[in-house]
Amino acid sequence: MSELRLFVTVTERESEDILERLSFCFGEEDYAIGTTEIDEKADRWEASIYMMLAEEDEVHQRFREVLQDAYPSLPIEREVLPDIDWIAKSLEGLKPVRAGRFLVHGSHDRDKVKAGDLAIEIDAGQAFGTGHHGTTAGCLEVIASVMRARSPRNALDLGTGSGVLAIAVRKLRNIPVLATDIDPVATRVARENARLNGVVSGLDFVTAPGFHSPAFSTHGPFDLIIANILARPLIKMAPQLVTHLAPGGDVILSGILASQRWKVIAAYSGAGLGHVRTIWRNGWVTIHLRHGC
Ligand SMILES: C[S@@+](CC[C@H](N)C(=O)[O-])C[C@H]1O[C@@H](n2cnc3c(N)ncnc32)[C@H](O)[C@@H]1O
């Protein structure tokens, strides 16, 4: 059965407000809700809610009620999402992926890199992170926007997997990056990927569960922390993660299903971080938070 997206096109500030209103109305129900930047210069954003086609009438009616007070004449648009072609999907792993300014590709696709692309070469292997998963792609997109707007002096990639996110940070800015993973195979693969991508110096790989290593104090506190793990461990480690964050620092979290995002945001608000934005990719969300905002 087909899926549908109902959305409104507004400014960034309005999209955040509408996201709040939608979550208040739809609460713990199983609808994915999200905001997406459409045009940075024109400050055009979409606030969307996703549902099955059969639920459209009821959700549309409730969406209209949500908008009634503050945005009575805002048109609600609709988009029917394509049914997933599982055969094509199984071939996706072979294709390069674009996210923000990055093109993540396998070694067989070097010729697909165009001038202006920030290319990261990762072959599917023993560690997670080829760019195809919604969480990796979401992190890459937010990393690109944070690096555009801010000037972090160092970064931590917690749960580095293939090393793709740490490599992305180094491709954008020549700052020291600590990349850690609980899995020693991942740190070995990530180190090898960094070498393949020509970003060896300033990038340290350490095997450690959570924050259990002296490396965090030696390299931190960090202006930017990226952690693509899962909602439950992220919630648990919120207080500890924040102690390794520099004042005013940015945090990018992923590995979170759309329905879990409020619990994650609440845990990090409780630890002193403000929500900057949430982006949605294939049912997964990536959350950008900032200390003291
Ligand atoms: C979803 S993958 C993310 C990989 C890569 N950063 C990306 O975005 O594609 C999560 C990674 O976190 C690691 N991991 C899971 N729990 C961890 C923990 N408590 N401490 C450190 N790493 C952890 C896993 O071994 C895995 O490599």
TrEMBL record:
Key word Transport present in the record?
no
First-level EC class: transferase
Q: Which CDD domains does this entry report, sorted A to Z?
A: AdoMet_MTases (cd02440)
Q: Where does the protein end up?
A: Cytoplasm
GO molecular function per UniProt: methyltransferase activity
Main localization is cytoplasm
* Residues annotated as binding S-adenosyl-L-methionine: 136, 159, 181, 228
Q: Which EC numbers characterise this protein's activity in its record?
A: 2.1.1.-
Where does the source fall among the domains of life?
Bacteria
Q: May I have one GO cellular component term?
A: ribosome
Q: Please give the function described in this protein's UniProt entry.
A: Methylates ribosomal protein L11.
Similarity remark: Belongs to the methyltransferase superfamily. PrmA family.
Question: What HAMAP family does the record tag this protein with?
Answer: Methyltr_PrmA (MF_00735)
Q: What is this protein called?
A: Ribosomal protein L11 methyltransferase
Which species expresses this protein natively? Rhizobium helianthi
